[in-house]
Amino acid sequence: MSENVTIVPSTLEGTVRAPPSKSYTHRAILAAGYADGATVRDALWSADTRATARAVSLFGGAVDRAEDGTLEVTGFDGRPEVPADVIDCDNSGTTMRLVTAAAALADGISVLTGDESLRSRPQGPLLDAIAALGGEAASTRGNGQAPLVVTGPIASGEVSIPGDVSSQYITALLMAGAVTDEGIDVVLETELKSAPYVDVTLEVLSDFGVDAQETADGFSVDGGQSYRRAGGEYAVPGDFSSISYPLAAGAIAGEAGVRIEGANPSAQGDTAIVEIVDRMGADVDWDREAGVIDVSSASLSGIEVSVEDTPDLLPTIATLGAVADGETHITNAEHVRYKETDRVSAMAEELGKMGVETTEERDSLTIHGSDSSLEGATVSGRGDHRIIMSLALAGLVADGETTIEGTEHVDVSFPGFFDALSGLGVDLTAAE
Question: So where does phosphoenolpyruvate get bound (predicted)?
C-alpha cells in the first residue's frame, strides 16, 4: 500500500548512523555465493539486497539472516545451478546486471525479470557480451530490456562493451570471469562513467581473494580463481549515497549541528558529497579515522559539479542547489536518466512544483537558486528512493507543508530514513 509523508519545516540536531553500503552489500552477498560461503556482517537488508540474496539461493546457495542482521551465506562455489524458478530482481538494477552474468555460468537456461521500472532499463550491452563469450542471451521483447533469457555456460575470452551506460556490466563480467577457465578481458568502447563503482568491485574481489585489474583499454580478470574470504567474515562499510541525505539535511537545516556516524573511508565515489557540501559553504568536518562527520547549516552558494562518477548524488545536489544562492550546474548527467526513473527530469519537474526554476538539458541540470522560491507542495516520489529522500530534504526548508507521495520506496536503500529524520527533530507525519 502506498504511503505518503508530510513534512513541516524543521531544524535538525543530533546524531544519525549511516546505513550500510548497498553497493558493497550486493557484491559481498554475491561474492560469498561465488565462494563456498562466508559471513557478511553489517549488511544492508533492503528490497534491493534481498533480491540478490534470493538469486544466490536460486543458484544453489542460501542466505540466512540472524537476529542481529548478520548474513550467513552458503555459496555455490563458483558453479551456479540452473535456477528452479524465475529470478525476480524486483527494482534492483545492480542485481539484474550482476546476476545475469552469474546465470551465464550455469549449464542451462535462466530467466530474469523485475518490476515495471527495471523492465525499462538497458541490458543490451551485457547480453551482447554474453553472446560473444559463447552463451545465449535474449530480451524476450527484443528491445534489450528484461525479461531476459540467458543460456550458458559461457567460455573465457575478450569482450568489448560501452563504458558510458552502466559500470555494472563491467562488475558483472569481472565477478563471473574469475571462475571461467581462462578469464575475461573487458575492452571499453567508450569512456567509463561511474568508475568508482568498478573500484568498489575490485576492492571486494580482492577481499575475497580474487585478482582483477585495470588494463590499458579496460579491465581483466584471470580465470580459474576461487572466491575465499580470509577468516570467513566480511564487514560492509557505511553507504555514502545514503550519507548524502543526512549530510545535506544538516547543511540546509542543521543549525545546532548534525553528527553522522559510520562514515568510514572506502572506494565509494559518493564520498565526494562531503567536498560538495563543503564547497557550497556548509560547516562540515570529517574525522576519517573515527568515521564521523559533523555538519551544520550556513548560507549556501551554487557551484558547478560533474556527476560523471557519482550519478546517485544528482538528486541530493539538485535539492542543495534549490536552497543555495546563485546557480548550481550539474554536468555529465546523461547516464542519470537510466536509473529507477529519469532522475534528471524527475528532479526538475518535482522541484518545479515547489517553485524551483531549473534548466534541463540532455547531459545537465541547472538549478537557479536565486530565481526560486521553495514552497511546500504535494510531490511524487516517482517510485524512486533517491527522489523521495531528496524531496524530503527540500521539505525541511520550504515555506509550508510538503507531502511526498509513495514514500515506501525508501526501503530500497535506507529503510529507516524517515525514522532517522524524526530522530533529528523533523516534524513529519506518515499516512497510507
Answer: 22, 93, 121, 168, 343, 386
